Fold:
Amino acid sequence: MNRRAVLSSFFFAALSFAPVGNHVIADEQPLFGYSAESSRAERQWEEKLRAIPSPENLRAYMQRLSARPHHVGSPYDKDNAEWIAAKFKEFGLDTHIEQFDVLFPTPKERAVELVEGGPKFAAKLQEPALPQDLTSNQRDEQLPTYNAYSIDGDVTAQLVYVNYGIPEDYEQLDRMGISVKGKIVIARYYHSWRGIKPKVAAEHGAVGCLIFSDPHEDGFVQGETFPSGAFRPPDGVQRGSVADMPFYPGDPLTPGVGATKDAKRLKVEEAPTITKIPVLPISYADAQPLLAVLTGRVAPEGWRGGLGITYHVGPGAAKVHLKVKSNWDIKPLYDVIAKIPGSTFPDEWVIRGNHHDGWVNGAEDPISGQVAILEEARALGELVKSGWKPKRTIIYCAWDGEEPGLLGSTEWAEQHYDELRVHGVAYINSDGNGRGYLRVEGSHTLEKFSNDIAREISDPETKLSAWKRQQLREIADAKTSEQREEIRKRSDLRIPALGSGSDYTAFLQHDGVAALNIGFGGEDQGGIYHSIYDDFYWFTHFSDTDFVYGRALAQTGGTAIMRLADADLLPFEFTDFADTVQTYLKELKALSQKMQDDIRERNREIEEGVFKATDDPKRPLVPPTVETVPPHLNFAPMENAVDALSRSAAEYRKTLEHANANGGAALASASLAEVNKMLIESERKLTNAEGLPNRPWFKHQLYAPGFYTGYGVKTVPAVREAIELKKWQQADEAIIVVARVLQDEAALITSVAQKLSGGK
Amino acid sequence: MNRRAVLSSFFFAALSFAPVGNHVIADEQPLFGYSAESSRAERQWEEKLRAIPSPENLRAYMQRLSARPHHVGSPYDKDNAEWIAAKFKEFGLDTHIEQFDVLFPTPKERAVELVEGGPKFAAKLQEPALPQDLTSNQRDEQLPTYNAYSIDGDVTAQLVYVNYGIPEDYEQLDRMGISVKGKIVIARYYHSWRGIKPKVAAEHGAVGCLIFSDPHEDGFVQGETFPSGAFRPPDGVQRGSVADMPFYPGDPLTPGVGATKDAKRLKVEEAPTITKIPVLPISYADAQPLLAVLTGRVAPEGWRGGLGITYHVGPGAAKVHLKVKSNWDIKPLYDVIAKIPGSTFPDEWVIRGNHHDGWVNGAEDPISGQVAILEEARALGELVKSGWKPKRTIIYCAWDGEEPGLLGSTEWAEQHYDELRVHGVAYINSDGNGRGYLRVEGSHTLEKFSNDIAREISDPETKLSAWKRQQLREIADAKTSEQREEIRKRSDLRIPALGSGSDYTAFLQHDGVAALNIGFGGEDQGGIYHSIYDDFYWFTHFSDTDFVYGRALAQTGGTAIMRLADADLLPFEFTDFADTVQTYLKELKALSQKMQDDIRERNREIEEGVFKATDDPKRPLVPPTVETVPPHLNFAPMENAVDALSRSAAEYRKTLEHANANGGAALASASLAEVNKMLIESERKLTNAEGLPNRPWFKHQLYAPGFYTGYGVKTVPAVREAIELKKWQQADEAIIVVARVLQDEAALITSVAQKLSGGK
Structure:
């Protein structure tokens, strides 16, 4: 088949924008980005692929990989890496282990004690083994309960309860006239990534931070606790990293470069992402005696948890001693990298990954995802043996050190930055898996692509396509009839943007490689996250017990990788993307307007005496003060850029339609390889070299984790966060930067369209 | 002063619609309904009145009246009535005690036991005495914890937790596939009047009902419990009536007639307002062991309380034995009635009331309100001694038997029905009092009047007027900028309509006498409602400890009574009223539209398969079934009637303005006495003889307690409840009935306007 034939027929697929819902796609309708001929072949190969993954294998892999604790630096972490590498090799992939050396603190001394203001009490800081749960008693190999990258410290101070410990909680504390300066704060998990809590506490002058799992969101309030049920038992503790990952993820000592043996390293004392104050996570059994003796103001309604006590804010007589001391060692990371070389475009890389390290036995997190990609790799290996030849190079990765700070993926993406900037087509991540709905988040240019994949996957429970089930879920959850109508009528379901919290971060936000994060969930209850109980016993009793959702994930990931690897024209689509960027612009304008309105209204209420009049003298609050009303921002550059983006996206789409209408004659001069190279650039163009203001590691101008949310995405972060932080000049400047990036993107898309239509 | 002079000058006041906010009203601006001259005099008398009430007296009265339990039929109930009567006499009022004889059951046997499915447990059903709280140990005189008018019963059955036990909770139970047929339900207090819970449970086939106070809304979750704090302690129980008061209040044996010695009585077995199943209230200490052993489905999120356990719905192995047996005795009621005769219009009655009976010592409920009206009576008595002569007859009432079912006020209002229909100008109720904001609810024709009164009262904490403080509170609480702007710009603050729950009910809803309910509150925490701890110790430690809000209530009630009693022209105002009725019409149309939209949407989702697709097979729900889309209702008759009402209200207002403009010459022929008589009719016109569909005792066509809310008002109840219950034909019929009533009201207002402008 010559190139011209390819060009003229694959545009058929480009026309198929209409949703196909739950129906079987007729063989005749080519896949998006495929010629009729290659589409037929692709469908057959994909069907073969989806028949291969086996729940029995997934179960066996999980049992093996979660049999012992396998955190960074542990013997079983290395053992697992080697076993995974052996498996990839067995499946026929060209595999090696790539090692990095990173700072990974492990606890030496830990103490939380009530020393004044109540009955003396020393927190247990220990999760008990359970007789029926055989791996829960591997104490010698388990990491103690702690928060990695807490600075060492030994402090004794009054205790203040700060709810979730996020900025708005401190605004409420200010109104209550309560300062945490010189105090130890106790915050509950949730409503932000955990690393935000000590960061914000330290910004407000606290000297220590405890983080506890409240049964309200993570324990008996939700349902039966383990081992009777899936939820967190009284002594269960959520371990986890508290490094300042929204500043930069990865090894704290080697920002921006791979942590190879001889990399230039910061000193530990210089590492900016280590916390400023000592932090420990505690169970609700350990938290209860501390919270119960707090006095002072009764906690506001939204601050009350499920402990069966009156929650108070403090401070009072209660004084707590907190001690954290770590071994600050350099530990090896073992990233397993396995390749299937591309036959046509070997320099275009389609990458798939999941991490293999866990906090303890980590059956759900991460092994439930890791086993699915092992089965994908096995299935792809089978296809290769049967004669399948992917056009592009496929790379399967099993990352180490995700838990402490996305270490393995970040170091690899930093180390291979230059290659990835040239060769990276897309990165598809998973990180655990469970019962429920297929959730896809990621680059909006892959929205249509990911919708197409979801339409191919059968939900094991309902036998609907994963796409259809998700659509019906979104209809059920929609809050307004407008939302429902959009969900019903729009060709594709919108996919949320990516913040952080897993290994896609460095690819998307540092390297500018288009990324997706996929996994099933939403019907998988759980309260064993980052505890010793996240193990094979728990998973096979309370989660995807028959591994059918594991199989579905392998089918989804495998199909997606194949379809990207085999496409004639890379399936990036820009009209959905431009549509979504328009909504971000609208949000930013509305946010800016709302801040003006809110401040203007509050000033008026201050002048009217509202706060004075409604203050209860027996429970007085500090009144707010008059604030300058924010200026109007100049959104025009961004408005023009987003319009340009919409025009170019329409042009590209029209070019595909037009090319198809006249049989592709006008495309004779177009080079498919060149066009694909340009399409790969479309995500890169959304980054800039300077990165975000004050956090240059983050290069992407559309997606970033929030500086004060940690996982949660902030789209158009430079503009949005400047507005949120009331930095008006910075917001105006950021609008110009983002506008330039979007103008460049629009120009690129226009060039692609011109190239396709034979121009240039 | 001749009548003409009066007529020409008091219309000045009618023009003063603009809000005067917090400013001192110049003596020159006459009060609404007053001539310039009588306004000046009135102001002086009112100022004298407001100087009289004394916190010390309020405190002393409370200590005396709450010194012993004083429920219906108790020795101290009679003693209090006689003491109050003696006080009224001492103040110079013409006082008598009016006795009725009513059915009042008191408990003989009570038991709640866990007999299967957990450790054997017998509920304590007893509130312990506290050493520091001296009246808490009067066990011999205390009524045990129980719900009055529970039918006798002795049942043993599985237990089901039904959340608040309101109709929507049963819809959720249906979705969960759980039936309460043959079961005992356990419901938490709140979100409906308590009598609704056994009523709805019985409608669904339950055989018994427990009602408990959950610490989430009434206990330690809210704050420190008594005696450390104001909130409900573990063994505290909320007593209360469970008679079907939304069917009719008052003595269950004498609906519609006064329960005099020789009244015709139903047999106890025939009384329709006694519950169909046995009911007992329990503390959260008694509820916890029952709820803790429930199994089955985990309670949905909104159903989870504060007990520090996993809430389950049941049923399961847990079986409960519930026994209730009462003495079904006839007991005497002692209503204290005290009068100051009117000098000019003795046949126009201005009535003020609060009840004197309590469930136990009842310091907060009702004595904190009762003592304020005692001080009002003393103050008015002082004024009379100084030469003040109210134009109208003033009647002060201290009702007995409010707690079991508004008995004293209802029997009196039934007994004196014919007189009240002729003479009743207005009834102003209180029922307890606390720290905080002046709250006024009632007849919308008295909205402007009550706003004017609130402007005269100084808030003890902020020294703002009660009106201004409330306005600023409403600005602070408003959810939208439209709401805020209305609050800022509208002349008067809207007052909520009255449902039920206190002694205004029979006056307003049976007799058609315009009514207001007034009291301060909102900063008074509490968890002693209807328990032995509602006593002098609690009140003087945790509520209006210095009785300054008691004084403010006496000032408010006294001013309101005086201003009604002395007015030249009764201060009913109809434009605010018509404006509010317009909003009710809008609500009804929106409700009808929403029910169509919701059912249409749900049907669509059923057809799309939303419920099937989103069902979790491990926790399956019963899917809803397709339902006929409701028909369009014919709102036109009501639309025309409400328009007529608005026109007539505008006409009345214009007449006042015009009459003023030409010096009142056109009014020469108008008779003030006649006009006032017509104005009194304005509330009567809103009732009809047939009453509401299926509950004829309730005559008012604009306000009623909801049949399934109990206290909460349903405005335009015949129409609104028909729509809610999906009785479309009944809704269409009710619209016609309500339209007729409103047309009659409009005609009356037009007649008043014509009479005033000299026509007839």
